[in-house]
Amino acid sequence: MPEAAGYYNSKKTDDICEEVCGQASRAALTMTRIRCVLRGVDIRAFILLAILVPSCLFGIYLHGQKISYFLRPLWERPPKPFNNIPHYYHENASMAELCKLHGWRIRDSPRRVFDAVLFSNELDILAIRWHELRPYVSEFVLLESNSTFTGIPKPLFFSENKEAFSFVKPRLTYGTIAGRFVKGENPFVEESYQRVALDQLLRHAGISDGDLLIMSDVDEIPSGHTINLLRWCDGTPEILHLQLRNFLYSFEFFLDDKSWRASVHKYRQGKTRYAHFRQTDDLLWDAGWHCSFCFRRISEFIFKMKAYSHVDRVRFSYYLRPSRIQEVICKGADLFDMLPEEYTFKEIIGKLGPIPSSFSAVHLPAFLLQNADKYRFLLPGNCQRESG
Ligand SMILES: *[C@@H]1O[C@H](CO)[C@@H](O)[C@H](O)[C@H]1NC(C)=O
Ligand SMILES: *[C@@H]1O[C@H](CO)[C@@H](O)[C@H](O)[C@H]1NC(C)=O
């Protein structure tokens, strides 16, 4: 019987089928044979699925965010490139020369400058910022809320520590705003609510048309000479983004040159709105520092991880364990175990893994170097943080 022989041969290679269908093989019917092969496939496929599907789901649960970040170049285009404005500076160049190098003209007197921030808990970085800008800023404006953007009650950290900032007292407009504490709301709603309140506080501080207004987060610090240039020159753009050097945890971990959210505006009543997104194409290069998560104490890292608008990044509670946070800081790794946010595979792959240490402390805020003992944790080779 040629059919039976053929059946036998095909079965030999198929152990599962032999076990399951051994009895039926005697009938040697073509239909049985097909059914048998199919059943064998079914069981193997079933076992495979039973193992693969749960492990895939578990893998996606653990790494889903990474997978979507890695595939980002497929579904998201990079934003429109900026109009990059070269920045010229030397401490010995005169202001007239500097204005001219940028294609601007020197003014008879400098514009007034307002520096306005929404404050959360960045006390050390705030001191460095205000000392850096102090010679050039006419009025500092600070607003703090008793709610984080994520709706957690918070102490008024600035108010509790205001003696440390008495050096700006005559030039400070300080305001508080009550949190709304709406449960389950997108944190960006509370954030924009606070920015609107900052607009009102600015008017209260006496800002008027033609004054310069710095819009940036506390940890986005324009260099003093940049603000001095902008206040002394005419012909500068109405709105100008500042390209800052991006650091993480301290000035030891230089990430990239891609911080652009900080901006300087010529204030126009009724038109200028405090914002932290892209507002124009013009970008002045090398205009300062952006030091993210540059905290002295581990408890401040934990507070910030829970408080900021990207709180969804804390996907597992062990992310908040102090020993893990300390380890991540010293390695220059990512607190949220995320992939680099980039738009091309080349850039994502180039940035994978921890940030290499830098041993340069050249061109940093002056106040930091003048008080190196107090701010040692921000300098290269000092990754250990105060516990608690
Ligand atoms: C800068 O100016 C000072 C004082 O005029 C001068 O002594 C110094 O040599 C100058 N430095 C450079 C690098 O040109
Ligand atoms: C926040 O501040 C407002 C106004 O001072 C107050 O009424 C409210 O009770 C405060 N909320 C919390 C949670 O501290």
Automatic annotation (TrEMBL):
Entry annotated with the keyword Ribonucleoprotein = no
Q: Key word Membrane present in the record?
A: yes
Q: Which UniProt keywords apply?
A: Membrane, Transmembrane, Transmembrane helix
Source organism, top-level taxon: Eukaryota
Q: Name one Pfam family in it.
A: Glyco_transf_17
Query: Which InterPro entries does the entry link to?
Result: Glyco_trans_17 (IPR006813)
Q: Name one GO cellular component term.
A: membrane
Q: Which residues form a coiled coil?
A: none
Give one GO term, molecular function aspect.
beta-1,4-mannosylglycoprotein 4-beta-N-acetylglucosaminyltransferase activity
Transmembrane spans: 43-62
The Gene Ontology biological process terms listed for this entry are:
N-acetylglucosamine metabolic process
List the protein's name: Uncharacterized protein
Look up and give the organism this protein is from: Spirodela intermedia
